[in-house]
Write the structure tokens for this entry.
Amino acid sequence: MVPKHLRDAHYKGAEALGHVGYRFPHDDPRGWVEQDYVPGLAPGRFYQSDARGGGTFERRADAFWEQVSGRPVPRRFAGD
């Protein structure tokens, strides 16, 4: 099921159905907001690159995540 805050909310009556609450990451000064996009999918259970060492893009992305969220990057892989 699509979370209610991700459902179409442009029409009259959407609020009465609970189709409100989406927060736009681009409106947040960090460019990131915590909200559920895929119910039942734990953080870190999707794709994780193995190229996280050195100055790679993934390492920089991890550092950015830790900066904006204040939490370490989830280090769980599918099948763990």
Remarks:
- The chain has a mean pLDDT of 80.
- Residues 2 and 17 are 13 Å apart (CA to CA).
